[in-house]
From TrEMBL:
Stated name of the protein: VOC family protein
All copies of domain VOC, residue ranges: 4-129
Extent of the signal sequence: none
Superkingdom of the source species: Bacteria
Organism whose genome encodes this protein: Rhodovibrio salinarum
Length: 142
């Protein structure tokens, strides 16, 4: 059996705040929404333009907020189109008060990355030069 990853679902404390973050910071748009099964809040699917049928982020209401143990680096990764995009995302994080980690360059295959925190406390990484996005073509990201 071959399986394909299609979504990640996050059970968040504040769906509306998370929608705003993923829309404004990550450029995701709502592609589906419905009332939550409990009738309290809404379930929202968000995707990057052109990826609506291949991968979505699902926001579920009523979560407890992200609760990470010390050293837990669980995160959602986004690729940016150029190395300077990492620094631009750091500026966005500073301006919004959600910068979690300054930009770091660890070379291939990790590349250059910065980490922000969404309103629920989830880590969101923006990178350039990893094997899964821009700058990956020859393994020698700028």
């Amino acid at each position: 059996m071959t399986a394909m990853i299609t979504h990640i679902a996050l059970h968040v404390a504040d769906v509306e705040a998370c929608i705003a973050f993923y829309r404004d910071v990550c450029a995701l748009e709502i592609v589906h929404e419905r009332a939550a099964g409990s009738g309290d809040g809404r379930v929202v699917w968000m995707a990057a333009a052109g990826q609506e049928t291949s991968f979505v982020l699902v926001l579920l209401p009523g979560g407890p907020g992200a609760q990470r143990a010390a050293g837990d680096f669980s995160h959602i990764g986004f690729a940016v189109a150029r190395p300077a995009g990492v620094d631009e995302m750091a500026e966005v994080g500073r301006a919004r008060g959600c910068l979690m980690m300054e930009p770091v360059d660890e070379g291939y295959p990790v590349g250059r990355f910065v980490c922000l925190q969404d309103p629920d406390g989830n880590i969101v990484e923006f990178s350039y030069g990893q094997p899964l996005g821009p700058g990956a073509s020859d393994g020698s990201a700028e």
